[in-house]
Amino acid sequence: MHIYFANGLFSRADYDFNARLVKRLRLASGALDIYLPQENAAINDKNAYADSTMIAQADTQEVLRSDLMIAILDGPVIDAGVASEIGVAYAKQIPIFGLYTDSRQQGAMNPQKLTALQNVAENQFHYLNLYTTGLIKLNGEIFNSEEDLIKAVLAKA
Predict the structure, then answer these.
(1) Is the pTM for the entire model greater than 0.90?
(2) DSSP calls for 66-78
(3) Scanning 78, 98, 118, 133, which has the fewest C-beta atoms within 10 Å of its C-beta?
(4) SUPFAM superfamilies under this entry (predicted)?
(5) How far apart are CA 125 and CA 65, in angstroms?
(6) In which domain, by residue range, is 35 found?
(7) What is the tally of structural domains in the chain?
(8) Alpha carbons within 13 A on the beta-carbon side of 5
(9) What confidence score (pLDDT) does residue 45 get?
(10) Contact of 133 with 8, CB cutoff 8 Å
(11) What would the pLDDT profile of 10-31 be if each residue is shown by its tens digit?
(12) What are the C-alpha distances in Å from 77 to residues 73, 113, 120?
């Protein structure tokens, strides 16, 4: 099974997270062929040069040959590149598994948090773009733990 792994890769934190989670997936099953864009030095060695069309062509080609996309949704907003990749995968009916681990999703039944929503600028929850998450849900699923994501990937493989 060919998997496209979509996440930002420019901060050390994202880069390390991507490498760690992809390693866990690869160890879980040798049947997984995972494309991790940061491993493609031809377009992502930032000491070298790749223009926007080179990057778009290389990553789009990998999205289109994928059987599944894993999209990381964490961050202040969904990474712009990840959102674009989700759109391409959805348009080609490639299943998408999102991972959303933001701790602000906790306490959804807490009455104080719910009451606070009535006050301006007191939203205790994180917002994700509903169009982008809707595309995922129309052709996949969103998980809130790495373990659940890995189980779902293995079940699909």
Answers:
(1) yes
(2) -SEEEEE--SSS-
(3) 118
(4) N-(deoxy)ribosyltransferase-like
(5) 36
(6) 2-156
(7) 1
(8) 26
(9) 81
(10) no
(11) 899 999 999 999 999 999 999 9
(12) 8, 21, 20
